[in-house]
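Collaborator request, handled under Task 6.
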Amino acid sequence: MIRTQLVLCAFLLGLAGTAQAITAEELAAKNAEAKGGVAALDAVKSVRRTGKLIVNGGQFVLAIVETRQRPDSIRDDVSLQGLTQVESYDGREGWRIDPFGGRKDPERMPADDVKGLIEDSDISGPLASYKERGAKLEYLGTEDIDGTAAHKVKVTSRAGDVQYVYLDPDYFLEIRIESQRNVRGVKETYVTDLGEYEKVGGVYWPMAQTSGRKGDRDPVKFQFEKVEINPQVEPGFFSFPAAAKN
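Structure tokens returned to the collaborator:
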């Protein structure tokens, strides 16, 4: 009798383990499907989000236009009182115009400063496009994110950079992304929280976002109000301005 009970117990535990088991690759597939499906994501060749950038606890509210285009281009235009700051990456190099810092001419960005733009340029997201980018995935179980037992997936890029992607256990959409970057020889972790998803063009996009170094008490907040799918983008829009080239 005891032997039978032990065998039954082991069998039930095995079933429970099988039911709970999930792989990183399965989560990536669920994430792509949750966003609208691979076909809908692939149909988005460019996307533009417009809204507000809130800094210093709301002391400053700036207008932001974020434009992304496949395969690896992104540009952020942030405006306040007639001045516009630009940060852009065209798939080869990054550059910026920073009038708020007293620099009105375009300047090329150091490689370390471009890493965040490169990560953000991916329209499909780090999980939905991991195969195309040659990244490796590892499932690390669940972790509490503001009361949610989120699935945690480690993403290691071909270059060795690491991101941790946290998925909502019910909807399989990203609620947090932690990125580890070496900045001037120092390893730093940046945290981006995502929420308020809305479906536009067959794809769900986060309309609320906070970003900053891990531990920051006052991260930068984004509140997007509009999403445009496949907007017309002028040639050279993401590239270093030709007039400024030496």
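The cover message to the collaborator said: "The first helix runs from residue 2 to 20. DSSP finds four helices and 13 strands in the chain. Please let us know whether this matches your experimental observations."
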